Amino acid sequence: MNEETIQRIHSTYGIENWSAGYFDVNNEGNIIARPSAQDARNVDLKDLVDHLVKDKKLQLPILLRFPQILTNQLRILTGAYKHAMDQFDYSGKHYPVFPMKVNPRREVIEEFLKESDRCRVGLECGSKAELYAAVAQEQTSESLLICNGFKDEAFCRLASLALQSGKRVVIVVEKLNELKMLLRVANETGVCPWIGLRAKLYTRGSGKWASSGGDSAKFGLTTSEIIQCVRLLRENKKEQYLKLLHFHIGSQITDIKRVKNAMKEAARVYSKIHQQGLPVDFLDIGGGLGVDYDGSKTRFESSMNYTVQEFANDVVYTVKTVCDEENVPHPNLVTESGRMMTAYHTVLVVSIREEIETFADDQPVVLIDEDDPQVITELKGLCDELNGKNYFEYYHDAVELKDELHTQFNLGLISLEDRAKGEVLYWEVCARALRESELSRSPNEEFEDVKRVLAAKYLCNFSLFRSAPDSWAIGQLFPVIPLHRLQESKVDFATLVDVTCDSDGKIDKFVDLKDVKETLELPEWRENEDYYIGLFLLGAYQEVMGSGHNLFGLPNEAQIFMESDGRFHVSKIVPGSRIQEMVTFARFDVPHLQEAFNKRIRAAVESGSCPKENGDKLIQQYASAAHWTTYLE
After folding, report:
1. Which residue among 81, 122, 494, 592 is the one 20 to 30 A from 191 at the CA level?
2. Is the bond into 61 cis (omega within 30 degrees of 0)?
3. For residue 128, which of 108, 154, 99 has the smallest C-alpha distance?
């Protein structure tokens, strides 16, 4: 490809802005993935998917998981804090923990814990199920197991098992009654974990999750409740177990100023507690470190106006400054930056099955008869006479005539054939006017709506609600790019629709550097040709938040390690959900369903409406259908 084509691709899809160096386009016009921004190793995603489909017999959609990207993100995070601590002469250590709620998949957890010896990475859990899984994981003795969320006695007893197995367990108290319960369980079991207090800061975050912090936050202790907790610990002679102060002001913080303000407030609270003679020496700053989904580097909800290094610098410098003023030791810093750690490592690959057009290019030429209604004749005149000087006026005339067309149809004045003829002419006027607008030096903004309406809808074989639920639920932007054919100059403007029977099952907002695009430039769909689309940056929250809408299940998965010279190793394949799994999820009993169907067939055979040999085949087919994938085959 020439330099002009490469620049057009980058301008259209913004790859260099949001990919953090993990993804790029090669000279064949295909998307490649790398283990890190500077790594020479890469894999062609089109070649990879072809291998999975043709050699491994996997069906799309396929979730590609790249463990090397997980490891590299952890190294970027720990490297940023090490650099900041060295630069500002910070005496505390950095303890990264991975919050399991972000992505509790075993493949993710185990990949992070492989780095436990190197960087003390631990886990954070917020439910009994997460804690149950975390208790059995191998961690270095120095790493932490942080227990957040609301707790009952069973939670505390499970945490005591982790403690007795040799883990460094910290139970973070969310409300005063939790501390009373924890102390009661500790007295009964004879062991007490380290205790953390979650402070409800006045400072709030920014972006979609700003309400996570501030006075109305769901979690956290007020200042008076913190004082009561300290008093209760002293009364029970357990103050030596108070080791950590925790706070969280929201996920995906978009504005670095909010981070600085929160650190000042939290460091001041930590200092005041430490000055009371309590042995707290960990400050857990929670999550919030954002991901630049759209690459704009702004305070927009799908972006953030800082780098990882800037975030770490501000945290370390601000905490050090306050602690030095208060003459207290620098605390060890605990981070729960799960979004940043996982977002980049997965790509969902879907296939385009067909094109749904508002205005078909292959419509027959409309011929006008003498007895055609005047509204049809006038639309035909607009269509034939539209040019670069009058297109704006003629477009407005066509809009009025379309309204007149439908009014006359509703009054019974024109036939169904006349209505069809008028609609074809109207969309032809719109298409021609749009082309003239695009050719002008300053395209009229009014035609953005025309472009959106005329955009083709590409039917993609996936469920938005299962694989990218935040796109539907909160309007989160995720980069969407074809995995191949990017060098082609002829494109469609299109939106994507999924295979669910829900009108909201669509993606019609796309990443753009300056704005949010309502259509995406895509190579034209060609029947009977492979056409792969990639949805990127889905590694955080999407897998665990996905729903079983329409009983569509999990896609097939492949875990990929990138090697040199474009080679790759498929280390693990996880089959996607089958029909029997999803109907069981909905509390149906598969054997009971099969028996009920068999009963109907036997009745049909006995009544003579179904030959016995056909009945036997139907029973076998229904039984085998339970093993089919839930997606289109």
Report:
1. 122
2. yes
3. 154
Q: Residue 307: pLDDT band by 50, 70, 90 thresholds?
A: very high
Print the SS3 string covering 294-336: CCCCCCCCCCCCCCHHHHHHHHHHHHHHHHHHHCCCCCEEEEC
Does residue 25 carry a pLDDT above 80?
A: yes
Q: Which domain holds residue 406?
A: 374-452
Reported pTM: 0.90
Beta bridge partners of 171: 147, 195
- Assess whether 195 and 276 both reside in one domain: yes
Residue 288 CB partners (closer than 8 Å, separation 6+): 205, 248, 249, 250, 251, 252, 253, 259, 337
* Structure tokens that stand for 24 in this block: 């790029």
> In this predicted model, what pLDDT tens digit does every residue of 401-450 receive, in sequence order?
999 999 999 999 999 989 988 998 998 898 888 888 888 877 777 787 88
For residue 283, give the 3-state DSSP assignment: strand
Interatomic CA distance for residues 234 and 226, integer angstroms: 13
CA distance 277 to 194: 16
Clarify whether residues 299 and 180 are in a common domain. Answer: yes
Beta strands 456-460 and 480-482, pairing class: unpaired
Residue 218, pLDDT score: 63
Question: What is the H or E stretch that residue 94 is in?
Answer: strand 94-99
265 lies in some domain: yes
- Eight-state DSSP code of residue 496: E
384 and 330 assigned to the same domain: no
Residue 157 CA from chain centroid, whole number? 34
Asked if residue 212 and residue 165 are part of one domain, the reply reads yes
Phi-psi bin for 124: left (phi > 0), alpha (psi -120 to 50), beta?
beta
